[in-house]
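Lab meeting, action items carried over

1. Structure of the two-component assembly. Owner: GW. Status: complete.
Input record:
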Amino acid sequence: MNDRLERYAELAVRIGANVAPGQILAVTALVEHAPFVRAVARAGYAAGARCVDVNYVDSHVRKAFIEGAPEELLEWSPPWKVTRQQYLGDERGAEVSISGDPEPNLLADVDGDRVGRAMPRELMELSGRMMLDEQLINWTSVSFPNAGWAETIFGEPDVERLWELLAFTVRLDEPDPVAAWREHLDRLTSRAAALNERRFDALHFHGGGTDLTIGLLSDASFEAARFHTSWDREHVPNMPTEEVYVAPDFRRTEGVVRSTRPLALLGQLVEGLELRFQGGKIVDVKADAGEEVVRAQTQRDEGASYLGEVALVDGTSRVGQTGVVFYNTLFDENASCHIAFGKAITRTVEGAGTQSTEEHRARGVNHSSVHTDFMIGNPEVAVDGVTRDGEAVPILRDDRWVL
Amino acid sequence: MNDRLERYAELAVRIGANVAPGQILAVTALVEHAPFVRAVARAGYAAGARCVDVNYVDSHVRKAFIEGAPEELLEWSPPWKVTRQQYLGDERGAEVSISGDPEPNLLADVDGDRVGRAMPRELMELSGRMMLDEQLINWTSVSFPNAGWAETIFGEPDVERLWELLAFTVRLDEPDPVAAWREHLDRLTSRAAALNERRFDALHFHGGGTDLTIGLLSDASFEAARFHTSWDREHVPNMPTEEVYVAPDFRRTEGVVRSTRPLALLGQLVEGLELRFQGGKIVDVKADAGEEVVRAQTQRDEGASYLGEVALVDGTSRVGQTGVVFYNTLFDENASCHIAFGKAITRTVEGAGTQSTEEHRARGVNHSSVHTDFMIGNPEVAVDGVTRDGEAVPILRDDRWVL
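Predicted assembly:
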């Protein structure tokens, strides 16, 4: 057990964040993740980090904040958290974010509108800029199996079973996980290359209640898995990762999309989500549960109701093979095609990283303080690439890659 | 159980920190204290706090830091922690610090010299100045019973037994704890007044291997329990509290003192501590365990090897009545007379709060980035007040107040 934890922490530090000697390593985690955080700290120092700084978050304290804080503080960014983020960027630090919420529906009974609005705006914009635009830091997101999360998935706190699934999806079950990761990253990169050769004008998702067309930018390219910082440090932002993704033209999304997996969002489970787009914009939000949270989030700022990412994943991915719904976006988005409303992955757009918000908008690249992924793929949903001539080329059928 | 936790949190927030409506409330705690932190957050908002900000500390991460960080970072203060503390002072915030270490000897096998030096100097000086000199914030220290702490005391994780002791010492067992606290605080205040009437020139501790004379300042007064901020908000810094204390003349301590209880210090248990003073200064440090940590701490800066506090407590205190060694200074110092090397409690010295370090030193008031209490009283140790004429007046005999 301990050995597994140490190996997993090492994978997160050496392959995920790829911490360089002398770097500061920031860790963000829930208090329930303490055993893993400790292993990450040890692995960080072993990799040569000069300081590991942990920011523990407590969902119950956040709940008390959303219920009890005055209206004007809901979007407030504590100055010291801004200082910390700024310092991390200035120093070209590394970051490991840990997910795996033991109570993903803890805020079910809290006013959804407040839940959707309660996010530190300045801090989120700052960290979004650092991580996605300026690419100042090498970062990764990983998850830690815990009793509450296991209970959410299986109906019982079978942590061992969750560990086995996790080990499979992050290739800890391989004799040489590091080598297995390199091979896997190469495979995803080839898939992105195949898509880029076609230079599709749009993607069309259809079936199972979805009929959605997403316009693509002519100067954006699908990418996969590997990021590089502006100072050329490779890192893997998500573990697991199975997606190829791109920033779409935010002005050209049309139609209706249904989510295919529940979405754990800010402490509420969003189920049966259906969004309608017109001229790129979300004009209607419906859900069986969590509707208010999504609506409040999409109304936070101008860009929050437009898309910032579209990603293709097929059911043969390791996460898909498990057949499990994880109630954790890091996993569920890697079992299924997904889209995100909010901030664009600017690094997929030629030369966009250093451009201003206005320049982004002018060329169809979305800007927002949020970036919320949700799952839209399953065997019922076919995906076509649409050429500039209007021809539909099958990319996914029955949840399998056919391009 | 939950009801008890909520009542205890309310006591900490309403009597301890005495949070005012609209204040920001900072909480510092170990990750193991999460259940209590959550109750404190709820109690904070219920008392009208506009924001409860929690700083979770992880002893294992700190251990990895001390073992792995480069030498020059041991005393480093992360800029964002300085910003946080500064903000708290600027905003006249409140603070609840939670102790109760589940593993007070976790760093037993770490180089004691590094353990003793690894403290963020700028941050500690800043918070010391705010809490003790300028008195900008209303703060309190409380403890949370947990399995590890109970095991340290009893040899088994009997949390329920620890809760019962805690409830007794903090008067949660009273039908009206708030009224019981007011009465208790009045009693301690009278004891301080009785001492102040005598205007002793020195205190003399003798017996059980101790023979120590501590010179007092003519313009300092014993105080007890109640603090007031500079903007006149009453608060109770320690719960429990049973002591009357004063800042001594740091230049006039002479002799030898033996600690009478183990001291949990920075992750190591210090046992059998014996210090020798000459001209106020600690000139010799001996201990059966933890000697290096104490030595490193007393060598951090010029003031660290001089006294900043002497406090009188008798064995009839509620903590004393339990007959238990708590391995937690907040409790053990309230069962026994104690002294602290390092920073003086400047508020006990007339007009010292707003004076500079140089002015303090010139009048015999110590300054340092540390303030470490340790226990020196038990039935073998007699305490006398020494008058200006050299007459010895008994204050404590057989661990009972006799003045």
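2. GW to write a short summary for the group page. Key points so far: Chain A has a mean pLDDT of 95. The radius of gyration of chain A is 20 Å.
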